[in-house]
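Design request, tokens follow.
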């Protein structure tokens, strides 16, 4: 990457490089399931077992999609206003469209899939805001705040969405259905799964003091500081929509009347419960990453790499 970055810096941009940049954005956006490259994800999650869905959401989309897009965009080609604007538009469209599509779903895993698209939109939006601030030469503090918010939400999404997929797998394992209309009252028969699902729902909806609240708060504050007031408003409204469709999950799956078909449902085995409870602890505890020492050890180095942009090549090559 460093050698390619140096070659681009020496030779300058040309039509071939611009075309390759477009291909990189399209390819990594497909991996990250950003709108309008998202169509594969809602079909992939219902077809996959819950552990694979958790890995797909927590690893594949984040590392092969978002991380690769950021490293190539920021550290190889160099961030500019056009690239940052593309990230902002992709992020905003994914955030809004994913939320509304999730709101209309009754298949639980398809709902989670569209929810992933929406939350990835938050990440890309925040990183696009950071890139835009860098490109126009404004406050480095605001740029680093936006980038930190995006990276923090990336980590948080890996934890609470993995929790939600594992808890959905537990529900499907016991209830033998993904249809929310055929569920109801499962908290009565599956208290640990119900508890884990609620914690995941509160986290992804941005309810304090869970981890999703802190990363969304940083994203909103960064958008306001960067004078993207409409984007800050949209981020808050989409979070409210997120809460709405997870309240639907609670209403139809966890609470309400326990049907006759579910009278014999039991809690899942201990190992499955342990996996969910471990992720519950992460959802509660990851807010502490904002404390000075954890932030300096985990988030700050990643933010600095992206903030350096193409100067990263000089650090690697030593010239």
């Amino acid at each position: 990457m460093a050698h390619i970055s140096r070659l681009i810096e020496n030779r300058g941009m040309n039509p071939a490089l611009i075309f390759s940049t477009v291909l990189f954005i399209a390819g990594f956006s497909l991996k990250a399931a950003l709108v309008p490259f998202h169509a594969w994800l809602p079909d992939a999650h219902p077809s996959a077992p819950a552990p694979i869905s958790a890995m797909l959401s927590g690893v594949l989309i984040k590392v092969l999609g978002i991380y690769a897009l950021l490293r190539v965009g920021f550290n190889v080609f160099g961030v500019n206003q056009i690239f940052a604007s593309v990230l902002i538009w992709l992020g905003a469209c994914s955030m809004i469209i994913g939320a509304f599509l999730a709101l209309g779903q009754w298949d639980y895993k398809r709902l989670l899939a569209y929810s992933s698209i929406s939350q990835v939109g938050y990440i890309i939006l925040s990183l696009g805001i950071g890139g835009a601030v860098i490109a126009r030469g404004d406050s480095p503090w605001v740029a680093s705040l936006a980038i930190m918010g995006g990276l923090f939400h990336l980590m948080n999404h890996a934890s609470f969405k993995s929790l939600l997929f594992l808890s959905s797998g537990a529900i499907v394992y016991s209830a033998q259905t993904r249809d929310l209309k055929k569920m109801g009252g499962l908290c009565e028969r599956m208290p640990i799964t119900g508890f884990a699902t609620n914690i995941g729902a509160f986290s992804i909806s941005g309810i304090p003091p869970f981890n999703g609240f802190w990363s969304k708060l940083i994203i909103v504050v960064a958008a306001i500081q960067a004078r993207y007031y409409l984007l800050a408003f949209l981020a808050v409204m989409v979070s409210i929509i997120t809460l709405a469709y997870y309240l639907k999950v609670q209403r139809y799956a966890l609470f309400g009347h326990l049907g006759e078909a579910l009278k014999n449902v039991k809690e899942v085995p201990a190992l499955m419960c342990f996996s969910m409870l471990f992720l519950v602890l992460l959802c509660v505890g990851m807010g502490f990453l904002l404390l000075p020492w954890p932030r300096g050890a985990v988030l700050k180095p990643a933010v600095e790499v992206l903030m350096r942009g193409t100067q990263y090549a000089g650090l690697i090559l030593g010239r």
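Comment from the thread starter after seeing the answer: thanks! Residues 140-175 form the longest helix (36 residues).
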